[in-house]
Amino acid sequence: MRPMMQMISGRKKALVVFAAAALLLCACSGSGASRQPETSAAEETTANVSAGDAASVSDETQDSAGASASQEETAVQTDAAAEDQQPENGEDSVPDILHLTTTYESIVDTDPETSATVLTMSVQGLKVNDEKYAALCENVGAYWDAVWDSVQEQHADYYAGAQEFHNDMAGNADAYYSIAHTSRAVRSDETLLSFLHMLEGYTGGAHGFYEEYGVTYDTQTGERLTLADIAADYDGIYETVRQELETKYAADGALFDDYAETLQSMFYGEEQPEWTVDRTGVTIYFNTYVIAPYAVGPISVSVTFAEHPDYFKPEYISQESGYIRQIDWGCGDTDLTGDGAVDYLYVGSDVDGNNNVIGYYVSLNDETVSRPDQAQLGGSWVIGDINGRIWCYVQLYGDNEWPHIDIYELTGGAPAYVDTLQSMKLSASCTGPENFCLASRLDFLGSYMGYEDYDLKEDGLPSAHTETYAVYDYGMDGTLTAKCDLPALAGVNDYGTGGSEATVPAGTVLHPVRTDGKSWMTMRSDSGEIYRFDVEGDSYGTGSIGGIPEEECFDGLFYAG
Q: Measured in Å, how far apart are the chain's first and last C-alpha atoms?
């Protein structure tokens, strides 16, 4: 695997520079672009008002229990149990979805005298939570472990430079080095996991740098794929990319004179192109300085399944309509509205004269909506449904990182506020509008995010496939430990149905699996046994199990303030 954080291959192996000028795509991430208000406070206040909420992710599609049971056995099965044991994704035709969560590691160095930041280095990676894809889980984990190892290995060198820079820029609180690896899944289904690994940094000088790496795995085998692995006509893909570069960029003199040789070397030499695949096709990425100078910025070329179905092996072509795109720096150079013209989407912060956040705006082409909200911007999704309507989900974080999502319709080219989903968070998992993942804040046997699969309703709001939540990464180490013998049901499935009464011994280490968020939670022991714990009483620390107060039941319980 290519070592991370090395100079990118290509023209003189120069560091990719993140062009400030290229930031006409305003950040839809936490580093969203800001602007001074263009309207009065009264106008902003009346812009749009909200309210709404929803529910919340599933694990794997489950077979209906009793499918092979006799008619007599089926007849005595309760309606509730039958409902709980239906395939989690709803109808069998709905494509499966990989359940992804993010991982985070960081190093922060500060000046011991002033406590000012000197260097930050971080890795926000992806974790596959579907245990049935064991090889994929292992290989994706190993990929991000290697990235983090590389960061730690290079820390000493970066720190030396950062300390010198900090001393030279004494008095400037913003004078520090930063290195940040982030990830964005573009396809995560039963066939392919494809994500974009982004590296952004600043190490002094007039501007920072930005690089993109495409990573794609076969979900079933866990094998990392090359572009040639999914291609039926590799030469056709190359020729389409070459023609796109020639007509769109080279004709205007935007590319290096030897870009054609570089492109050919990327496709047919030792160095492979950077690429990802979503449900609409393949995108090829060219980092700054590879085929074009800094001023041009990063370049990408899409080769779609619709236009070139013969270029790709059938098993990798998605047959579903609609799409989901997670966006970080805005979404430009894309036909969002389906009218054949390029659309530019911007989501950024509105600030006052003292640079305080007073709201945010959503702008599509020349149409802008401002909304008062002092929350910090997170990521955003653009969702195209099967009927051609376009939606934007905007993630925001309020006090204590409390999440909420504002929904806008973009159909027709003008943003229109629809509703707000309280206590909800965008997930790394995505396939399309018929199956995507959101997380909800829960306060039941602790505080955590519960994940659920959804489909998109006609009004742009999400509709949950089940009434239960998958639980991933609970607490600091993901476990609870029984402090005393506890009553439970043993031998149940993830959804808590079936099984028989049992006692869980004190000292048993348990991994939360699934909950309805109000009356029960299933947990898996290290031996693989699934238990269901029924909880009486209200949430937020006041419940009990078999008459035992919950704080006396488990070590590891935590509640957020």
A: 42
